[in-house]
Recover the amino acids of this structure.
């Protein structure tokens, strides 16, 4: 039983670069999302067709929730967070397709997403407040606490990554073990649980990213 | 006892004790949220949103222990 969750499965090589399975799945998800959006918004009209309406309802619902969390309706990072949520839902639920594995169950994809959140925290923070004010907020409430503030910045990015990876990967591991112990029909309730876990983890990742970016940009007052 | 047995034991201990604390605290958090929702059903939306984020924070501790256990089992730097 080869279930090492930290092992990266290499599918093929392009020149000297090995291409892992999670990269292929990620690109397939991105292509599918772009394709669906293009199809839905091609010839977009005020009275759109079914696909356009479905896309609009989805994006509106997510954006409304995020606006409530961020607390400012015109915040420039809401499209980023909406995209993050939609991608995470697709990525977490891609394990439902037979033969596919969720890319978030490998360490690299959560690491990349956490890096995106980490960098956009600083980018939107500097954009909203300016260099001086943004750097000064690390010395709040006193200069003595600056190392702790910097440390918190790093550990929360790490925990964002490890949380998504740990949840998705541990679920996959549990499924493998159950499939080895009892293959027929027994894993089905756990597969259903996996859908729930995937949705909740996508939600949590997005909410935490919204809180971090919102706090850096000054739209959320963190106590 | 060789290094393999020690690392398996370490993984077991990490998951064992790493599950107890988060389990107790998640139970307490959910009980408090239930009480709050029962008292004020109109604020259920805000409470459950905060509860989910809080549960994720608590759960992170258990996940850390799991990651440590997996590191010990599969990517142990001291076992060749």
């Amino acid at each position: 039983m080869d279930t090492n969750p930290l092992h990266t499965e290499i599918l093929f090589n392009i020149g000297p670069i090995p291409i892992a399975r999670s990269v292929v799945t990620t690109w397939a998800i991105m292509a599918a999302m772009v394709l669906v959006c293009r199809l839905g918004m091609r010839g977009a009209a005020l009275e759109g067709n079914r696909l356009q309406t479905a896309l609009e309802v989805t994006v509106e619902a997510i954006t409304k929730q995020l606006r409530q969390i961020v607390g400012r309706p015109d915040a420039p990072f809401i499209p980023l967070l909406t995209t993050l949520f939609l991608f995470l839902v697709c990525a977490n639920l891609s394990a439902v397709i037979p033969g596919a594995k969720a890319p978030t169950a490998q360490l690299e994809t959560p690491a990349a997403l956490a890096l995106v959140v980490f960098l956009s925290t600083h980018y939107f923070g500097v954009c909203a407040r300016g260099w001086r004010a943004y750097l000064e907020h690390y010395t709040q409430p006193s200069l003595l606490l600056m190392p702790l503030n910097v440390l918190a910045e790093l550990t929360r990015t790490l925990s964002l990554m490890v949380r998504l990876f740990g949840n998705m990967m541990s679920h996959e591991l549990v499924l493998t073990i159950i499939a080895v112990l009892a293959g027929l029909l027994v894993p089905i309730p756990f597969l259903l649980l996996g859908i729930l876990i995937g949705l909740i983890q996508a939600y949590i990742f997005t909410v935490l990213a919204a809180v971090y970016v919102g706090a850096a940009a000054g739209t959320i007052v963190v106590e | 006892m060789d290094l393999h047995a020690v690392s398996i034991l370490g993984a077991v201990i990490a998951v064992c004790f790493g599950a107890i604390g988060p389990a107790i605290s998640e139970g307490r958090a959910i009980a408090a949220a239930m009480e709050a929702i029962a008292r004020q059903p109109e604020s259920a939306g805000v409470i459950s949103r905060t509860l989910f984020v809080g549960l994720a924070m608590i759960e992170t501790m258990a996940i850390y222990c799991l990651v440590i256990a997996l590191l010990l089992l599969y990517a142990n730097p001291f076992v060749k």
In short: The helical segments of chain A are 21-41, 50-70, 78-93, 108-129, 131-136, 146-181, 187-217.
